[in-house]
User: Fold Diacylglycerol kinase from Parahaliea aestuarii.
Amino acid sequence: MHKPGKRGLARLAAATRHSRDGLLAAWRSEEAFRTEATLALAFLPLAFVVGADLSHQLILVVCCALVILAEILNTAIESVVDRIGPEHDPLSGQAKDLGSAAVLVSLLLFALAWSLSLWQWWAS
Assistant:
């Protein structure tokens, strides 16, 4: 039988607390997350200086957010794999590698978007 859970605003409040807890856990346990979050905080205001228009600014902001999102998901994957056990398993290694690859792809996208944007801004 389905157990009734929180509904409405109570569910939203609980989900918000869990999300806050997740961000705090990432901040406390992952140096990469702290570095990327700090850089994102520095780059976000710059997006509104460098971006030529609102859509350009949004692209730069989204690139910052994608790095943070990828790092959070990578940390979640690593936590689950580590919870399963310390022994080496090819699928566990593959899961961790795929999470790391997601972070790399997001960082490459960030670097491309920001490099082109800064170059265009500097040249104008």
